[in-house]
Design a protein that fits this description.
The protein is mostly helical. 77% of the residues lie in helices and 5% in strands. The protein is built from 5 helices and 2 strands; from the N terminus they run αβαααβα. The chain has a two-stranded antiparallel ribbon. α1 crosses α2, α1 packs across α5 and α4 crosses α5.
Length: 124
């Protein structure tokens, strides 16, 4: 149940990012397809974060320390770009156009999903 709530929280955060960041878009024809797209992209994003983020943290440990953790923003932007690329390969209508869109989108996704987790008590 916790997994489903997390996916829905990330899907909602992705929706917020498409509303606030010009370079992030979903091009679905209906609302139902758009919701499905957000859920699929949230799954892709979750899998990428689960598999790659720990490896990147270990390999880039020095960058995290030197930048006082700000390197995490760059890593999150890169992971969102990778999510966009994988979604395009899978013919999912989700696109992030460029680093800065990914950078701001990753910040928004992080904040919104954290707030939803906090409100729902998912991490308790």
């Amino acid at each position: 149940m916790k997994f489903i709530i997390k996916i829905l929280a990330v899907a909602a955060a992705l929706w917020v990012s498409t509303q606030l960041v010009d370079g992030i878009r979903v091009t679905s024809s209906t609302t139902t397809k758009e919701v499905g797209t957000f859920i699929v992209v949230a799954l892709i994003f979750g899998i990428i974060n689960t598999l790659l983020k720990p490896i990147i943290k270990v390999v880039g440990c020095a960058f995290y320390v030197i930048t006082l953790g700000l390197f995490a923003l760059v890593v999150n932007a890169g992971l969102l770009l990778l999510t966009s690329w994988i979604a395009e390969q899978l013919k999912v209508p989700f696109h992030v156009s460029g680093f800065w869109a990914a950078f701001w989108g990753a910040i928004i996704i992080g904040i919104v999903s954290w707030l939803i987790d906090l409100l729902l008590g998912v991490n308790d």
